UniProtKB/TrEMBL annotation:
Keywords: Coiled coil, Periplasm, Signal, Transport. It is found in: Periplasm. GO terms for cellular component: periplasmic space. Residues 223-250 form a coiled coil. The keyword Thylakoid does not apply. One of its GO terms (molecular function) is polyamine binding. This is Extracellular solute-binding protein, family 1. Pfam families: SBP_bac_6 (PF13343).
């Protein structure tokens, strides 16, 4: 369930949409590969109905962000010489790089630096460009997140490499029944160290997430570069490890539902899908701040820039559409949508109507130097021994 859950019912993309308008090859096309469950099917329907010309829409859902990133890599790989034998070398379009099979692709903000550095994607627009009409409506923190130099590092004078269309957080999800016995409920990262939690917790199998939450407990940033200079960090990690039953980025909710664990740290996109079905589960965004993630539209390298893909991005940023994406996919929107509490089911309200003070303390996992990444990976491996 690593941000994979595909929403059924109102949000399922119907086959007729995926293959709509297959009558002629000359027809204008928009091909999108997207994370499953991140766009409601009815939003695609509305976009199609609002277009002035006949357009073939191909929206292909993919299970995981990692699969989408690998697809971007595959499109840019040059065929090996051994693959180009005999007459096949003279077939048109087989020489050189493979052509990307999508105009837009979903990518997570955490993958953006690698995608830019490996030249897998191209800018959506220059910073002063006007292709994206709704760009000006975004809050500055979203503009800052996707404006980068050619190596993928944050740069206020850089280019715009992605268009955020939904976001979420890393949260604590817990079994209400078990905590009723303990007489308290989790509120912050420090609760993971409390008595009675030994071997009751599952954590994400991610160095930046786990070490980051410990840094947050210690009043530091998720994006701290020199871990050696953080007092007591290693001791805190070792103590936390004694509370942990297992580490997993995929299967952390099933044991919680079954009662094998009492608390898990996970991504809101996973957690929000199960809260309504399992009333014994509660969830909270830690009060001292947490990690944030965003799903972005990116344009593969080598694809001609089309006005249709820009239209789709702008469409996703219209307040009424952004509201539908947020409510139907149980996520947050980078656009101000003024969603009323009554629009959100009670079990998921605490995660979708976030406390502004808590969010101001929260952070995206930003690119770190290779030396810092090695520190995180080394310390995480040492923690789990």
């Amino acid at each position: 369930m690593d941000r994979r859950s595909f929403l059924l019912g109102t949000s399922t993309l119907a086959l007729s949409q995926l293959l709509f308008g297959c009558g002629g090859n000359r027809q204008t096309q928009l091909k999108v590969q997207l994370l499953k469950g991140s766009i409601p099917g009815q939003v695609v329907n509305q976009f199609h109905k609002g277009l002035q010309q006949q357009v073939q829409l191909k929206f292909a859902p993919v299970d995981q962000i990692e699969d989408l990133f690998q697809q971007l890599q595959n499109w840019q790989k040059k065929p090996k010489a051994t693959d180009e034998q005999g007459w096949s070398r003279f077939i048109p379009f087989r020489q050189g790089q493979k052509t990307a099979d999508a105009d837009l692709v979903t990518l997570g903000d955490y993958w953006l630096k690698a995608a830019i550095g490996q030249k897998l994607i191209q800018p959506l627009q220059e910073l002063q460009g006007n292709q994206l009409k709704q760009w000006s409506t975004l809050d500055e923190k979203w503009k800052k997140l996707v404006t980068r130099d050619d190596q993928g590092n944050l740069d206020t004078q850089g280019k715009v490499w992605g268009a955020p269309y939904r976001w979420g957080t890393t949260v604590i999800v817990y079994n209400r029944d078990k905590f009723r016995e303990l007489g308290w409920t989790p509120k912050d990262w420090s609760d993971l160290w409390r008595d009675g939690m030994q071997q009751r917790i599952s954590l994400l199998n991610q160095p930046r997430e786990v070490i980051g939450l410990v840094l947050k407990k210690l009043g530091k940033s998720y994006n701290t570069e020199n871990l050696d200079q953080v007092p007591n960090l290693e001791k805190e990690l070792q103590t936390l490890n004694q509370q942990v039953k297992f580490y997993s980025s995929n299967n952390y909710l099933e044991p919680l539902i079954m009662g094998d664990t009492w608390l898990a740290v996970g991504w809101s996109s996973d957690v929000l899908q199960v809260l309504g079905r399992y009333p014994q589960l509660g969830a909270v965004i830690p009060q001292s701040g947490t990690a944030m993630w965003a799903d972005l539209w990116v344009r593969p390298a080598g694809i001609n820039k089309g006005t249709l893909s820009d239209q789709w991005i702008d469409f996703c940023w219209q307040p009424s559409i952004a509201k539908q994406i947020s409510v139907l996919t149980k996520s947050n929107s980078p656009i101000s949508t003024n969603i009323a509490a009554s629009d959100i089911q009670e079990p998921v309200r605490s995660l979708l109507q976030s406390d502004r003070e808590v969010l101001d303390k929260s952070e995206f996992l930003l690119p770190l130097p290779p030396s810092a990444i090695k520190q995180y990976e080394s310390l995480f491996a040492k923690m789990k021994v």
